[in-house]
Amino acid sequence: MVTDPEEKLLGVLQCPQAHPTQDTRHNTATVEQVEKVLIYSTPRNTTNAPRSNHPKSKHPPSTSQFHPLPSPPWATSTTTTTTSPTSSRSKKPNPSSPTSNSSKKPRVVGPAALVFPGRPLSADGVVAAAIHHLRAADHALAAVIDAHEPPAFVCPHRPFHSLVRSILYQQLAFKAAASVYSRFLALLGGEHNVLPDAVLALTTQDLRQIGVSPRKATYLHDLARKYASGILSDAAVVNMDDRSLAAMLTMVKGIGAWSVHMFMIFSLARPDVLPAADLGVRKGVQHLYGLKDVPRPSQMEKLCEQWRPYRSVGAWYMWRLIESKSPQPVPTIPVEPPALPADDELLLQHQQQHQQQEQHSIIQMIDPLQMLPGMG
């Protein structure tokens, strides 16, 4: 009988050579035998190793001897692993062990782009803190802040209601959208009935009769289904971080990145949202810094970096800035103009109407307040 571990290991290793025609299953079993020999035939240091490390010990190992599973990258890891002081193998000092410098605070590890919702801009003092920060961080923006009244962010509706309203207002003039929205509320029986089940109960024909296109009816039903199935909820929308919220909302038909940004700013009052693709914000940044060209969306993050963590307020002032730079209608002169021939008078009236329509369209393009959920 072989008792020496080395002789036993040698005998196991020679088994495949004695039967060269056996299949790979025997070779696999041989590898397992080698592992068992290495584990159970190695002499143990019974004086130093704790009893709990014995593979057949009746006493379970202490929980402090287990290495914890890695925590999610956004979670704060405060778990420490202890090393047996009597271990015969030398290990590098663990910075998270109790013997290390205890004055160091645990570091929060998480993706830099993951922004969790903080205090909304509708809370007391948040807008004032944002303005104070933006004044100190960007001297060019300070002049724009001085020229305008501070913004007020009010969220009168629940998230589902606001999203429904944003879909109804899409690509419509303000007056036309307001008319459709009022008929929609009348069809449901009031604002308190803007609920997922109530929206699902409306047929495409019902919505078409109040001026909602079949495509928008599809958008409304898709949003209501995702709420009814539990994929979305008002509580989840409010507590979700910015990136996750954008990913979830863009899954809804008819809701794109721009709509999500406007929703987060004006319905949820998120403080640090930069609508980098918004033309009004981009033109405002161009005027603010005297740039030759309108910055691309990919350049906006770097240009507006100093506005963090209040980029939503910075974007609001860009809308105000570009609004002040747009051509204003000529004020009415309280003097009767000289008589003009009929054709010239009609031409002048036509030009004035065209200028007013153009001015109205420009204001609508650069001022998303009119089309936003929960505003107006």
Q: What is the third-level CATH name, the topology of the domain at 156-268?
A: Endonuclease III, domain 1
Strand content: under 5%
DSSP strand count? 0
Taking all Cα atoms into account, the compactness measure Rg is 34 Å
Describe what this molecule looks like in 3D.
Residues 42-51 have a biased composition (Polar residues). Belongs to the alkylbase DNA glycosidase AlkA family. Residues 74-103 have a biased composition (Low complexity). It holds the Pfam family HhH-GPD. The protein is mainly α and 376 residues long. Helices cover 49% and strands 0% of the residues. It is built from 17 helices and no strands. It is elongated and about 55 Å long.
Labels describing this entry:
376 residues, mainly alpha, Endonuclease Iii, domain 2, Endonuclease III, domain 1, HhH-GPD domain-containing protein
Indicate the topology.
Layout: H1 5-13, H2 15-18, H3 24-40, H4 126-137, H5 139-146, H6 159-169, H7 174-188, H8 196-201, H9 204-209, H10 214-228, H11 234-239, H12 242-249, H13 257-266, H14 279-289, H15 297-303, H16 311-325, H17 342-366
Helix pairs in contact: 1-3, 4-5, 6-10, 12-13, 14-16
Keywords: DNA damage, DNA repair
GO cellular component, one term: protein-DNA complex
Family: Belongs to the alkylbase DNA glycosidase AlkA family.
